[in-house]
Amino acid sequence: MPKDGNSPGPSQPNRKLLSLHFLCIVFSPVVHIVPSDSVNFKVVSPAQPLMVSVGEDAVLPCHLSPRMNAEDMEVRWFRYSFPEVIHLYQDGKDQPEQQILEYQGRTELLRDNITEGSVVLRIHSIRPADEGQYSCFFQSSTFYGAALLELKVAGLGSGPHISIADYEAGGIRVVCTSGGWYPEPEMLWRDSSGQLVPSLSQTKSQQENGLFEAQISFVIKERTHSGLNCYIRNPRLNQEKESTIYIADPFFPRTSLWMVALAVVLSVLGFLISPAIYYCWMQHREKGKLLAELQWRRAQVYAVNVTLDPATAQSNLILSEDRKSVRHGDERQDLPDNPGRFEPYVIVLGAEEFMGGRHYWEVEVGKKPEWTLGVCRESVSRKGSINVTSENGYFVVCLRDGEKYWARTSPLTPLPVRVRPSRVGIFLDYEGGEISFYNVTDRSHLFTFTDTFSEMLRPYFSPCLNEGGKNADPLIICPVPEKA
Fold first, then answer.
1. With CB atoms counted within 10 Å of each terminal CB, which end of the chain scores lower, N or C?
2. Regarding beta strands 42-44 and 132-139, do their DSSP bridges make them parallel or antiparallel, or are they unpaired?
3. DSSP3 helix / strand / coil % (the chain, rounded to 5)
4. 100: enclosing H helix or E strand
């Protein structure tokens, strides 16, 4: 609708009418409205969709044609409705208070060439929900116009993680999972010769953050598919990731001699039943230990370099110069009481922040009689009385009194530990919703927390109180051996 050449742009009460007007013109990548008594200009934007990866910044350009100074114009970015502002430049400055909630603190208007009628909108930390069409709107005192451009989002997720689930149908059922993909990925199995192998089951789900998680399973039989490759592909980027698993023949179930012996014993010598049952139980336990060790070996593949964050350390804690170890000192240090520091509980967090993927690290606990290790949510309480349980965002295990091991669930879960661990492994599978703990000393599984994660997670360390020097030894973050 043309405007009177002496009139200003659309008034605030007429914004909704103008919004309805733009609903009628969204099918054209370049739009302009030409009043009879004003200088004409067009708003120009890229005709081809812009592709941006999840987590990166999107750069959306548009400019006036012909080139002219737009410093005194209103520049507005919106998506579905004119009043729903993504970014607004007005009266020579940005107007952040006008932004809708989803984009507050995430946008920046680059105005280096605004005197030539060119601006660029930068949107930080792109999410799947940001995908779609955007409108770039310019308004002078006598004229206004807009252009559309399309933003496509792609997420290249984590490498596929193959785990051993159980013995099934005369073979070993393996499960391949991967998360952090957008749009929905394609997933399949191939054998060592590259031939497609049909999966036993396949599931895909979209998480709260908009990213997809996929899972497929297959039963590997002895001397048929001992080597198996799991592939996951992003169809939009035409990129894929793969992972391979090899299972040696001794791990496959086979008919054992004790089964034949048991049948004979039952019919002839009843008093031998108990030894046979004991042998069966021992065989079952050994298989369980082998599965646990396989899971631990797979977790070590995702080893990451973890360091300590001094800004979170309680004032009695002493960190090494390389931030790889922490011990409890006898005296409080004079440290700034920032909101992120724990007080009075002797806790320090890792500097690394995890919002997805799989991560593994190991901590040397030595012969310390007390310690607590694990993962916690970024938003946990850090001051005053703290109830360290999984319900409150702390996914940790601990040792107390030199012999009692617990998982900090609610209520606490006692852990049956046969061999005292001198080193503990922690494995975080963010998309899989699991945090597992391993006794590196005897390669056994200690405990696994299961939950749904949607916020930042960080490594958690507590050397506990120092009572008469008994607990003075440090907790040390150790490198994972390369041979793992």
1. N
2. unpaired
3. 15, 40, 45
4. none
- 292 three-class SS: helix
DSSP state letter for 343: B
Let me know the angle formed at the C-alpha of 456 by 455 and 462, rounded to the nearest 5 degrees.
125
Q: Distances in Å between the alpha carbon of 261 and those of 250, 258, 283?
A: 21, 5, 14
- Cis ω before 2 (30° cut-off from 0): no
Residue 231: count other Cβ atoms within 10 Å of its Cβ: 19
**Residue (of 339, 340, 319) closest to 328 by Cα position:** 319
pLDDT single digits (tens) 390-441: 999 999 999 998 899 999 998 999 999 989 999 999 999 999 999 999 999 9
* Tens digit of each residue's pLDDT (9 = 90 or more) over 142-170: 999 999 999 999 999 998 998 887 777 66
Q: Could you please report the per-residue DSSP string of 426-468?
A: EEEETTTTEEEEEETTTTEEEEEEE----S-EEEEEE----ST
Answering whether pTM is above 0.85, one says no
* 377: enclosing H helix or E strand: strand 371-377
| Residue 388 to residue 395: CA distance in whole angstroms | 8
